[in-house]
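Q: What does the assembly look like in three dimensions?
Context provided by user:
Components: two
Sequences:
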Amino acid sequence: MIKIENVVKKYPGMERPAVENLSMEIGEGEICVFVGPSGCGKTTTLKMINRIIEPTSGAIYVNDVNVLKQNPDKLRQNIGYVIQQIGLFPHMTVHENISIVPKLLDWKEDRIKKRVDELLEIVGLDPEENRSKYPKALSGGQRQRVGVARALAVNPPIMLMDEPFGAVDPVTRSQLQNEFLRLQKKIKKTICFVTHDIDEAIKMGDKIAIMEQGNLIQYDSPENLLFNPNNEFVEDFVGSDRSLKVLNLLRIDTVLKKDVKTVATNNDISALHQFFENNRKKRAIIVDETNKVVGYVARNDVPKGSSSKGWNSIIKPIPATLPLQATLRDALAQMLQYDLGAVPVVEEDNSLLGVVDLDEIRSHIGEAYHEFGQDEAG
Amino acid sequence: MDRMKRGDDMGIIDFFLNIAEYFIKHIDKISTYTIEHFILIIIAIILSLLIWLTVGIAIRNNLGLAKGVLGIGSFIMSVPSIALYGILVSVPGFGLNRRSAVFGLILYAMLPIVRNVYVSLNQVDENIMEAAKGMGLSPRQVLFKVQLPLAVPVILAGIRVALVMMVGIATLAVYIGERNLGSLIQQGIVRTHDDMIIVGAILVSVMAFLVDYIMGKIQKAIVSPGLITDDSTSKKEVA
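A: Here is the predicted structure of the complete assembly.
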């Protein structure tokens, strides 16, 4: 899909090239994450693909066409581009921001409107509510979503993302990462993704390219990177806490407990009593008729009497839920932050898929570490 | 001057009565002067916009040229208006006529307009510029769809300054043959007619104020609501 061949970028007056004789291939539908310390050439490499930066020598092929021989504006219209600061146009509404490239391509007004609404749905923003807002009225996470929607506007096969989630708080970041992984399952774009955060790289990447001083040090799957680092630099960069990093690699679907006992809001209180009699759990998950998570009830809050009808008033909101795309690291982070022994896993519409609990994670990590690391001594 | 020094209680009322009397008596002449004043400014600002917006846009990517052009603008600004008109009159092809008056005003509008166009186009956030380029907008589309709309508030502020300044400087054009509100002031001084001077001064001030007010309205009408910061905070509080 994307082939980089002997690409060199030299800046005048600089001792060593920013990118030195880089060759690599990125497969269709893959997320390739470029990671490395600042100044390693990862962003330069990304920006050479859509010619924001022109290579000094070498060739870059997208679908077997050399990008250096194309009209740069036409090329860029067909490559989604998301940068850390997003660069939404403050004088345009959300709708206008997203419809820029479709307008350049002379789409009809009603087709544009349909596409904008569709994209807003895809990135999890209510079209009705957000379409005519200006960027200043959006939160950081919402702006990032609009940025992604704008990049997807004309459904380009390739996306370039330069630290796309770098400017939001950690909670929003992990939320955006999960959403993006879910989205990628549907849209299957070829994605080049730059980050300096190795945890993000391991979580997002199908392949990871570690760069240092303009050179590609290792280009490999996250598993291989963690357990078969090419050299000391990679080892250091990945860090000594590899067993913790593995958590980024494991999705919670592997430890998901599906048969979860719940109490429905339309049950009467005896169901709740029964639940706590049969289980030693401290909390019961409460769902509505359609299996959507409503909240939880703590054992101590349950009224003793059997006649109290309005028991629904003791339901408390659950502090944290996880989407299926979350990693074990996300799960553990939530558990530690909110002091939970188990976290419900929900669909987009909040319907319950199951729970992950601490014991299950603990036993699974042991297995996984064993499996990946078996060719390592110790 | 005598009239102003007379008895305290009657003096002020007399003073205003005199001005009102002068105003009513000479309403025809005064309205002609006002209209002339206005026409001069309209011609000058239209030509200024055509010339200086173009120049500002043309020099936007050339720091060296911009420094030169803005240097000339600053120099012109530092030349006293009377002196500038004196020089213009002596230039062949100009002389004692409206052409010189208009040209002088255009020269004074150079710095505020060109400077604000240049600065505001170059002040656009580089991330916004990169996003625009990365989406495949050509340099021309970047200019018209992104840079200029974002620069509008600052450019309008420059035009506003230029206009208010023009209203004042136009009064001096009476020395090279214009007939406008400046005539009231000039003749008032020559004939020591306080009421005449004051009527002229008040009308010039009113005109400057009106021009400023109209520019404020225009600004509100054409600047994107997305760029107005005060609104955002109040809206957020409501929401």
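Follow-up: Chain B has one domain: 22-223.
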